Structure formats: structure tokens, C-alpha cells
Amino acid sequence: MKRFEYNITKHPAESFTELIYYCTETGECTLDQIPQNQTEVLQSLLNGEGENGWELVQVSFGRNGILAFWKKEQQT
Fold it and tell me: Which of 6, 13, 7, 8 is nearest to 66 (CA)?
């Protein structure tokens, strides 16, 4: 049986100086503007964790930044 371990990382809003997103009261979120250099910041984050064997499960956006939820298979 496969076994997994999980990791949750915090990334402050200051890391994404031009990434603008808006969430309504019902929880619907949209991206208003995504400059190329900001997608590269997120891509670098994803690739860095991927190099260490982590797979992104979900990203949650908040006013102060994002939480990223990761998993990887445990080696037995």
C-alpha cells in the first residue's frame, strides 16, 4: 500500500508583488492581472518543491499570501 507524507508551506504576499487576485464573499476567486515575472516566481516555487519530490495538491490564496499543500510518497 502506498503511504504519503504531507507538507504545508506559507508564502507571504510580498513574494508576489504584482499578483492581484480578488475573492468574493461566496469564495469565488479570480486573477485580475498576472505579469510574466510573477508567474515565474510561482513557477520557481513549484519547481523547487518538485525537485525535492513534492507534488502540489492545492494552493489557497489569502489576503496575506498563499498556503501551498504538498504530498510525496513515503519510501519504505
Answer: 13
Which residue's C-alpha cell is 518543491? 49
Confidence (pTM): 0.70
33-63 core/surface letters (b: 16 or more CB in 10 A; e: else)? eeeeebeebbeebbeebeeeebeeeeeebee
Alpha-carbon gap, residue 72 to 5, rounded angstroms: 6
Tens of pLDDT along 39-58?
787 888 899 999 999 999 99
Classify residue 63 by its DSSP letter.
T
